[in-house]
Each structure stands twice: as structure tokens, then as C-alpha cells.
């Protein structure tokens, strides 16, 4: 009890000091608006709270990084807190109701719109060049942290789509991979050919699983056609016809039984056709490489750019996570400085490596010191090789994205089992999306 | 045990059935024997069924215990319960703590919360129960109904308002939000349990004390408290176990990792978005279970006694 009371007293003390400091500030700056960013005060004692999701390993890495930050800014103390992914959002949602969110928090693309729309996040635009250095960022990547043109979050690291293939399997199938610049139609034709070649082998080999079953690939395909998957006001930007056209592309494969069968997928879950070495290719996020190598026991897994649309691949970097300051923070300047440090400092890059994805800023990538030929090095190399193909910004998911993505996955399983048709798929998905996405 | 002793009888019976005889005593004894066999058979079936049930119920616990000795990669996707390779790495890891905070810090926090909850519940619930059961104050019925009403209120409805109140009081990030309610008899379940218990104590006892000049305080302390031992012990056990296992409360109110209780720390090892360390989680789960298990073993006879006495005196 005494401990708690002392803490309460210190808390009150700090609050009083802060209140005094704030009055002092506003007094000296001649009534400047509180929105204006000022360089972080190096005299006053500042305590920041910082929340992230992740495992014990990430907690260790953040602890080391924050020690570095506190060394560089002796007057700032950062109080970290961490939870696992689902608990993290329970805690944040409750805090949001009480306007007591941590000063800085890890943010996910699928929650960004919701938190920004509710006014829970602070605008970072004013902090750029004062406390926040974004000079190392690619324009399109930085833009993925904006909602309606306002910069609410800064991406820390990225994943990009890649077409993974298993060279040994491709060779044993005897069907050459599609040449560079291949289109979706080329890829679907290749899968059919490869699966036909592997039909008599033991174990039976396949070209790939059904690519139309991945919601993000549907979105990628829309972007390649020049359609924005989600509108500015958080609604769907595509029509049922768009979805039908995409699903129809896979119909010949499903009819011919040319994709890795769904009933086998269910048996070997959480592994997949690709990781049991029975499926020669799979399109997924490039940070899956480590998992693929570990699960399949095959060291030799290579990556190609994904199939192109009519005007090129139009790929986008998807932020694996972002850092966002809360609107209720009493120290927006220090919060911005902490974000800036975590995304830019080379030593932080060395600490994290690619455990959060490939760092967004080149200085951190260079500082990772990856070993040649290691998984990290191959992912970095792949990202460099496709740099020219990345021309788009990651679509900002609508509110309720998790639910519509899960429904898409469920329906595509039904489709592969043959219990529903493409038309029924589209009808049911749109009906459920109407329920899940808040109508404005 | 019965299986072993009854098996010979079964074989004798089988042989006897093949040779019918008209000797009366023989017949009688055969009848008696066959009745005994039938009873033995019934007992055998009963024991087998109970054993099967025990296996089903204990399997997860055994699986958890055994998994804590397996290397992490062997836990998921391996149906073998007995570890192929025994390792204590998981325990080393669990004791090593998270991000520089030792396992014992989490343990200490859980223990403080659990013990303080027990103290709070016993202090507050007994007093309020005495008021409800023995003092005839105006509005007693209404207050009692309101108290019962809070039992029907789902916890999830009050989370956010409660959080906002504690946040405005500046008490978030301390143990207060988790304990204050317990010291103020906000746990209606315990108050109700004790009221029911107290109503069954003979009123003549207090009347006798009153004649001897005792006031409420004296009656409560010298007459009621000693008699309420079973109810107090039952409440303590529930309060301890509930607090020890509570997850949502600590998740919402404890922000600093060095205030986390065990259930929160336990979840950190498994995160779908990064790499999961199932081994360390299992080890931590086993370590977290041990105190509750010991507590339960030490007090279990009182649970039965406490609940039984309340049920019998109707």
C-alpha cells in the first residue's frame, strides 16, 4: 500500500511539474497554437508511454532500442508496455474510450482508418523536419501511413508480394517457369501445365494452390487494373463484376483439379502444399521466406516478381507495422522524436534485423549487417531487385477489414470444395461485407 | 483394486454355469455368488467409465505438463504425449523472465493481488453480510435487491465506464482498480453467500448476547465471525483462485510490465504475428498452476464443508 501511495504522490508531483512547465511554455511562446511543433525541450523531464504487440523476443529488442533512445535524450524516460496481438487491441480499445492511449503505439494498417477516423491519433505533418525525419522514406511507402491526406502514422518496415518457387520441383516437373513480365493468364496456364505434368508422380505434384483464394492478391489484381480497392470514405471501390472476373480466372484450374487440393490443405494445416514440397509455386509476402525454409526443410527457395497486369506489375509495399502518436499525448514533440528514432536510427536496425519485416529506411537496412546468402539477405536482395516495379501505395483497408478477409477465405474454401459457384460466392461475400463495413 | 479380486470369481462362475446341479445349498450359493458377480461387474463397469472420464479430463493437464519438457518445435503437430527428448530449457527460459523482468516479479504481483483480494473480500463481505442479515435498517430490501442486481449485470457492460472512472482518478497503472472493489464489498457473490450462511445461524445466539449487553460490534466479532468460519474459508478460496486466474482486469489496468500478473506474462510467449515460443509458455503455465493447486489441495476439504453446511441448513 505504501508503494502505491508513493507512486501516486510521484505521479501527482510529475503532473504538477508538467502543468507548470506547460503554463511556462505557453507564456513564453506568446500564445503560439499548441498544434505547432517545437523542438523537444532538453531541460524538462518527460515521460513517454509506448505500447507494442509482440513476443518476448520483440520486447527484448525494443528494450535495447529504448535504452539507446534514453541515452541520446537523457531528459526523456520511455515506459514500454507490451501485450500479445489480440490482447493489445482489447487494451487499446478500452484506453481509447478513456482518452488515455499511450503516447506512441504500434499500429496495424487494418486498424489505422478506425483510429484515425475516431480522432484518436495525432497529426504528424507538423512534426516533419522538426522532430520527425522522413527523408529516408519512399514517397509511396510514407503515404501508406496517411488517412485522407493526413499523416497519422509512420511505417517501420515493409513486406512485398513475391512469387516463391521451389527450383528442384520446377525442374522435376520439366515445365519452364513463365518468362519475366508474365501476366496472370500466363501464370494460370503455367499452373495447369505443371499440374498435368505432375499428375502421375508420386507424391503427386502441383503447379500451385488456388491463387484466387488470397484476398490480398485480388486487391493486387484490382490495383493492376487501375481500380482503387477502397474509396476515400472507407467503402468498397470494386463491383461484384470485378470479383466475378477474378474468380473466373481460376475456374478452369478448379475444374481440371489442377490446384493443390483443399482437402489435403486441411489435413496438413498449418503447413501448406508449398511447405510439404508438393506444390511448386506460391505467391505470398516476402517475409514468409524464413518460415518457408524452416517448414519445408528446403534451403533452395527462390523468388520472382508477381504476375503483371496490363500495364506492369504495379506492386506496393505493405507496411508490416506502423508507429502512431496518440491525440491525447501531452508530449507530441517527444512522441514524434521517439518515432523518428525508432524508424531511422541505424543501431535500432542492427537490433531488429528483419524480424519486423525489411526496415523502411535504407540506413537501417544497411546497418543490419546481414550475412551473404542468409534468409535476411535474400529478402533484402529481392526487395532491391523489384524496386522499379513498386509504383503503388498499399490500399488503406476499410474498417471491418479483418471480417471481410476472413469471409473471403471461408468462401474460397467452399468454392474449392465445389459446394458453391462463383456467382454464389460473390453474392454471399457482398452481403456479408455490407454487414461488416460501417456505412457512413 | 476390485478388478483384481473379482476376476477369479468370474471364472468360477463361468465354470459353474456349465454344470447345473440340483443341490439346494449349492444353488443358493450360486445365486448369491452370481449376485455378487453382477454387483462386481457393475462396479467394474463403473470404475472403467470413471477411469475413462478421468483420462479425458486430465489429458490436457498431462499434455501441458509433458509439453513443458519438450523442445518447442515438438509441441505442435506431434501427438506423442511422452517427450522424445527431455529438456529443461523451457523452464530456464520461463525463469529468465521477459525483457529484463524476472519471473518472480510476475509471481509476486499475482500473489499480492490474490492475497489482498482475499483480505478485502473477507473484511468487507462479512461486515456487509452482517448488516443485511441481522440489522433491520430502512431500505434493506431495496439495497439487497440492488446488490443481487449487480450479479446479473454482465461484467463487459461495466468495463469501459469503470476504466474511465479509475482513469480520471489517476489510479490506472496500480493495483487499486483491481482491489478497491473487493475492499468495498462490490463482489456481490461473496456478500450473498455470507448473507445466506448467516441467515441460517440461530437468532437465539445474538439475542442471548444482546441480553448480556453486547452491541452489534461485539455480536459480530464474538458470535458471528467464529461461526462463519466455513463461509469465510469458501469465499477466501474462490477469491484467491479468481484473482489468480483473472486476465482481463490486469490487462486493462496494469500498464507497466513490472506490474504484470502471471496470466498476462504467460500470453507474451505466443504471438501469431511473430514467432511463438510454445515451450516457454507451457513451462510458465505449469509454474503458474502450482500455487493454485497447492492452495486447493490445502483447503479443498473446507470447500466441500462450506458448501455442504450452507445447503443442509435450510
TrEMBL record, chain A:
Gene3D superfamilies: Periplasmic binding protein-like II. The keyword Signal applies. Keywords: Lipoprotein, Signal. The keyword Signal applies. This is Lipoprotein. Residues 1-31 form the signal peptide. Pfam families: SBP_bac_1. It comes from the Bacteria. PANTHER family: ABC TRANSPORTER SUBSTRATE-BINDING PROTEIN, ARABINOSE-BINDING PROTEIN-RELATED. The lineage of its organism: Bacteria, Bacillati, Actinomycetota, Actinomycetes, Micrococcales. InterPro entries: Bact_solute-bd_prot1, SBP.
Automatic annotation (TrEMBL), chain B:
Gene3D superfamilies: MetI-like. Pfam families: BPD_transp_1 (PF00528). InterPro entries: MetI-like (IPR000515), MetI-like_sf (IPR035906). It is found in: Cell membrane. Signal peptide: none annotated. The keyword NADP does not apply. It is a multi-pass membrane protein. The chain crosses the membrane at residues 44-66, 111-133, 142-164, 176-195, 227-244, 278-299. Residues 1-12 have a biased composition (Polar residues). Residues 107-299 form the ABC transmembrane type-1 domain. Keywords: Cell membrane, Membrane, Transmembrane, Transmembrane helix, Transport. Its main location: membrane. SUPFAM superfamilies: MetI-like. Residues 1-36 are annotated as: Disordered. The keyword Nucleotide-binding does not apply. Belongs to the binding-protein-dependent transport system permease family. This is Sugar ABC transporter permease. It comes from Paraoerskovia sediminicola.
Amino acid at each position: 500500500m505504501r508503494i502505491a501511495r508513493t507512486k501516486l504522490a510521484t505521479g501527482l508531483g510529475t503532473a504538477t511539474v508538467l502543468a507548470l512547465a506547460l503554463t511556462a511554455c505557453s507564456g513564453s511562446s506568446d500564445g503560439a497554437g499548441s498544434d505547432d511543433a517545437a523542438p523537444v525541450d532538453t531541460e524538462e523531464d518527460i515521460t513517454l508511454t509506448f505500447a507494442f504487440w509482440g513476443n518476448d523476443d520483440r520486447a527484448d529488442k525494443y528494450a535495447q532500442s529504448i535504452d539507446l533512445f534514453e541515452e541520446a535524450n537523457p531528459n526523456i524516460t520511455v515506459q514500454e508496455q507490451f501485450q500479445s496481438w489480440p490482447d493489445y487491441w482489447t487494451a487499446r480499445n478500452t484506453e481509447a474510450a478513456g482518452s488515455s492511449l499511450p503516447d506512441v503505439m504500434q499500429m496495424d494498417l487494418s486498424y489505422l482508418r478506425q483510429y484515425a477516423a475516431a480522432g484518436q491519433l495525432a497529426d504528424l505533418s507538423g512534426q516533419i523536419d522538426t522532430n520527425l525525419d522522413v527523408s529516408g522514406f519512399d514517397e509511396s511507402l510514407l503515404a501508406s501511413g496517411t488517412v485522407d491526406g493526413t499523416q497519422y502514422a509512420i511505417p517501420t518496415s515493409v513486406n512485398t508480394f513475391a512469387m516463391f518457387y521451389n527450383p528442384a520441383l520446377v525442374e522435376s516437373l520439366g515445365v519452364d517457369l513463365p518468362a519475366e513480365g508474365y501476366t496472370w493468364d500466363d501464370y494460370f496456364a503455367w499452373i495447369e501445365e505443371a499440374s498435368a505434368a505432375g499428375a502421375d508422380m508420386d507424391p503427386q505434384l502441383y503447379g500451385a494452390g488456388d491463387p484466387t483464394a488470397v484476398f490480398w492478391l485480388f486487391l493486387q489484381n484490382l490495383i493492376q487494373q487501375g481500380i482503387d480497392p477502397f474509396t476515400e470514405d472507407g467503402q468498397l471501390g470494386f463491383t461484384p463484376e470485378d470479383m466475378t472476373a477474378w474468380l473466373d480466372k481460376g475456374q478452369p484450374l478448379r475444374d481440371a483439379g489442377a490446384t493443390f487440393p483443399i482437402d489435403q490443405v486441411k489435413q496438413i494445416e498449418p503447413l501448406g502444399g508449398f511447405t510439404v514440397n508438393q506444390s511448386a509455386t506460391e505467391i505470398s509476402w516476402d517475409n514468409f521466406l524464413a518460415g518457408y525454409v524452416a517448414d519445408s526443410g528446403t534451403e533452395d527457395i527462390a523468388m520472382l516478381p508477381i504476375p503483371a497486369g496490363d500495364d506492369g506489375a504495379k506492386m506496393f509495399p505493405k507496411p508490416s507495422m506502423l508507429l502512431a502518436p496518440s491525440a491525447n499525448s501531452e508530449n507530441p514533440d517527444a512522441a514524434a522524436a521517439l518515432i523518428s528514432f525508432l524508424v531511422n536510427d541505424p543501431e535500432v536496425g542492427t537490433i531488429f534485423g528483419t524480424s519486423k519485416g525489411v526496415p523502411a529506411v535504407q540506413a537501417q537496412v544497411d546497418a543490419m549487417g546481414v550475412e551473404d546468402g542468409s534468409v535476411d539477405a535474400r529478402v533484402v536482395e529481392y526487395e532491391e531487385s523489384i524496386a522499379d516495379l513498386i509504383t503503388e501505395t498499399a490500399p488503406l483497408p476499410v474498417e471491418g477489414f479483418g471480417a471481410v478477409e476472413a469471409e473471403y477465405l471461408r468462401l474460397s474454401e467452399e468454392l474449392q470444395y465445389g459446394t458453391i459457384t462463383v456467382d454464389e460466392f460473390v453474392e454471399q461475400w457482398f452481403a456479408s461485407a455490407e454487414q461488416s463495413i460501417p456505412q457512413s | 483394486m476390485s478388478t483384481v479380486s473379482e476376476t477369479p470369481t468370474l471364472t468360477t462362475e463361468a465354470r459353474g454355469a456349465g454344470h447345473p446341479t440340483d443341490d439346494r445349498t449349492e444353488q443358493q450359493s450360486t445365486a448369491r455368488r452370481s449376485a455378487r458377480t453382477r454387483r462386481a461387474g457393475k462396479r467394474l463397469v463403473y470404475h472403467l467409465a470413471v477411469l475413462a472420464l478421468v483420462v479425458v479430463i486430465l489429458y490436457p493437464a498431462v499434455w501441458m505438463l509433458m509439453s513443458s519438457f519438450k523442445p518447442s518445435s515438438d509441441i505442435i503437430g506431434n501427438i506423442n504425449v511422452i517427450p522424445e527428448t527431455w529438456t529443461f530449457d523451457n523452464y530456464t527460459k520461463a525463469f529468465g523472465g521477459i525483457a529484463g523482468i524476472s519471473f518472480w516479479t510476475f509471481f509476486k504481483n499475482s500473489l499480492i493481488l490474490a492475497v489482498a483480494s482475499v483480505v478485502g473480500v473477507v473484511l468487507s463481505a462479512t461486515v456487509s453480510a452482517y448488516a443485511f442479515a441481522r440489522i433491520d435498517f430502512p431500505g434493506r430490501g431495496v439495497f439487497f435487491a440492488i446488490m443481487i442486481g449487480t450479479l446479473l449485470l454482465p461484467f463487459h457492460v461495466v468495463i469501459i465506464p469503470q476504466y474511465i472512472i479509475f482513469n480520471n482518478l489517476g489510479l490506472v497503472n496500480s493495483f487499486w482498480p483491481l482491489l478497491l472493489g473487493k475492499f468495498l464489498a462490490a463482489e456481490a457473490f461473496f456478500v450473498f453467500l455470507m448473507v445466506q450462511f448467516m441467515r441460517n445461524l440461530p437468532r437465539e445466539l445474538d439475542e442471548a448476547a444482546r441480553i448480556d449487553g453486547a452491541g452489534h460490534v461485539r455480536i459480530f466479532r464474538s458470535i458471528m465471525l467464529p461461526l462463519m468460519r466455513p463461509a469465510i474459508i469458501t469465499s477466501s478460496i474462490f477469491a484467491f483462485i479468481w484473482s489468480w486466474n483473472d486476465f482481463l482486469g490486469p490487462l486493462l489496468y496494469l500498464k507497466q510490465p513490472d506490474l504484470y500478473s502471471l496470466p498476462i506474462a504467460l500470453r507474451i510467449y505466443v504471438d501469431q504475428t511473430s514467432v511463438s515460443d510454445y515451450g516457454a509458455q507451457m513451462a510458465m503455465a505449469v509454474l503458474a498452476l502450482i500455487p493454485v493447486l497447492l492452495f486447493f489441495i490445502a483447503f479443498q476439504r473446507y470447500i466441500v464443508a462450506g458448501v455442504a453446511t450452507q445447503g443442509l441448513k435450510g
